[in-house]
Design brief:
Elements lengths: L4 E3 L2 E4 L4 E6 L9 E7 L6 E7 L4 E3 L7 E6 L2 E6 L8 E8 L4 E3 L3 E6 L1
Length: 113
């Protein structure tokens, strides 16, 4: 069973910063991409940011210029700056392989106004 280990969520005031990390086991094999999704209260899960094996990145329009995704081997990071109350959500790490997807357990990010 592959386990993605997430950390870094918490409570922060609007305008503040948080950094999320997600570590995958090095034995996971070939990774097509890793990324972060979020589920705001009462809404559907949505893509936040993704980084591919070739280091190309993709961001939701709502976080462009504020969030930065990066990768170090099988660990990814999401630096979140200028946080807004609408960024409040459970954030899930995703690892995409050609044969299936893996998900972390989720970490809560709460931004107070």
């Amino acid at each position: 069973q592959v386990q993605l280990v997430e950390s870094g969520g918490g409570l922060v005031q609007a305008g503040g910063s948080l950094r999320l990390s997600c570590a995958a086991p090095r034995s996971i094999g070939i990774i097509n991409s890793m990324g972060w999704f979020r589920r705001p209260p009462g809404k559907e899960r949505e893509l936040v940011a993704r980084i591919t094996s070739s280091e190309s990145t993709d961001y939701a329009d709502s976080v462009k210029g504020r969030f930065t995704i990066s990768r170090d081997k099988s660990t990814i990071y999401l630096q979140m700056n200028s946080l807004k109350p609408e960024d409040t959500a459970v954030y899930y790490c995703n690892l995409h392989r050609i044969d299936r997807d893996y998900w972390g357990q989720g970490t809560q990010v709460t931004v107070s106004s």
